[in-house]
Amino acid sequence: xxxxxxxxxxxxxxxxxxxxxxxxxxxxxxxxxxxxxxxxxxxxxxxxxxxxxxxxxxxxxxxxxxxxxxxxxxxxxxxxxxxxxxxxxxxxxxxxxxxxxxxxxxxxxxxxxxxxxxxxxxxxxxxxxxxxxxxxxxxxxxx
Length: 143
What we know:
Elements (H helix, E strand, L loop, with lengths): L5 H8 L12 H11 L3 H5 L2 H7 L1 H29 L6 H8 L5 H38 L3
Helix pairs in contact: 4-5, 6-7
């Protein structure tokens, strides 16, 4: 029998059993992470608002600022994922890290905000695809 590594021992100490294979290649991890965080298309649909409101300067500096903020969020979430590994993600972390008095409400609110973000991103992607289709049609039918 294979001796468990430090991660497996820590998971067993937390009461979890390892049922699935944990040998992923870099390419498979990149593929899963891209499919989970593929909200760039939904966000890019909103760039027209920035172009109309502040112009290219707002878009360039806004993208730089948002990149820095998103990197900080990603680092924080990766620390949480390594400290509290769980498939639940943010709502689990909210339940574990919030004061006991507010833990259930924080977990509930986190789950709803994540759901709403998914719905709004999906709506934004749908609008962008529809707008792109209409734009392609207008290019081929200029009358």
